[in-house]
């Protein structure tokens, strides 16, 4: 009877057991992270945040510069340049400006045999080509997402292991240390106990 009851677990019991094991596994790996994870969590400065995701990296000018330098060494800096051009393009709403900038982006990055052609499929290229008649801020969104995915899954993990990232990490760490030092000194200089009392 005991064997029969074990084999007749319903779906709810199976899910409960699965979730229990899943939480145990997560607890083991999350609560007991690898040593390098502990180091990153302890530091929690701009540099460690820049290494957490491509989105975080690209949100900072210094991150964009270091990542572009890395992409240049891999001969694919046009991916980042295209992505940044699309970000800027989406900020415009004037039809004349959209038309002018869309044509420039198409000529530089999309058109077959263009000097800095990005790696998008024929179908995406055709859709963009047709949208140039009346471009909207979203006409490059599909291509932009594909290029972002290409960078996030390919270039970004390699960047984190590169010398360019080490330089960025060191510079951001030093910058944070200087800011912290300045803040401590500034607070000490302006603390009420140091101000002279009126006589």
Describe the protein in words.
The chain has 199 residues and is mostly helical. The protein has eleven helices and no strands. Helix 6 packs antiparallel against helix 7 and helix 6 packs antiparallel against helix 11. The protein is elongated and about 50 Å long.
Q: Work out the number of β strands.
A: 0
What is the helix fraction of residues, given as a range? over 70%
Radius of gyration from CA coordinates = 26 Å
Overall 3D shape? elongated
Please identify the structural class as seen in this structure: mainly alpha
Strand fraction equals under 5%
Number of helices: 11
Contiguous uncertain segments of 5+ residues = 1-12, 20-45, 189-199
pLDDT averaged over residues? 76
The main pleated sheet reads as: none
Gap between N and C termini: 94 Å
The H-and-E topology, N to C, reads as HHHHHHHHHHH
Blueprint of the fold:
Blueprint (H helix, E strand, L loop, with lengths): L1 H6 L3 H21 L3 H9 L2 H5 L3 H5 L2 H13 L4 H12 L5 H16 L11 H10 L9 H20 L2 H28 L9
Helix pairs in contact: 6-7, 6-11, 7-8, 7-10
């Amino acid at each position: 009877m005991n064997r029969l009851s074990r084999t007749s677990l319903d779906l709810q019991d199976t899910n409960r057991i699965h979730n229990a094991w899943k939480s145990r596994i997560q607890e083991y790996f999350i609560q007991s992270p690898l040593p390098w994870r502990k180091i990153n969590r302890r530091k929690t400065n701009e540099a460690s945040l820049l290494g957490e995701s491509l989105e975080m990296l690209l949100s900072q000018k210094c991150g964009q510069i270091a990542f572009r330098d890395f992409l240049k060494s891999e001969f694919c800096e046009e991916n980042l340049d295209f992505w940044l051009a699309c970000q800027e393009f989406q900020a415009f709403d004037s039809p004349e400006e959209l038309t002018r900038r869309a044509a420039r982006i198409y000529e530089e990055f999309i058109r077959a045999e263009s000097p800095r052609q990005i790696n998008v499929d024929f179908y995406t290229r055709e859709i963009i080509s047709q949208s140039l008649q009346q471009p909207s801020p979203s006409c490059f969104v599909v291509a932009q997402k594909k290029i972002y995915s290409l960078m996030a899954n390919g270039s970004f993990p390699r960047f984190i292991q590169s010398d360019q990232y080490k330089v960025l990490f060191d510079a951001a760490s030093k910058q944070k240390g200087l800011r912290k030092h300045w803040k401590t000194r500034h607070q000490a200089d302006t603390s009420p106990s140091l101000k002279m009392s009126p006589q």
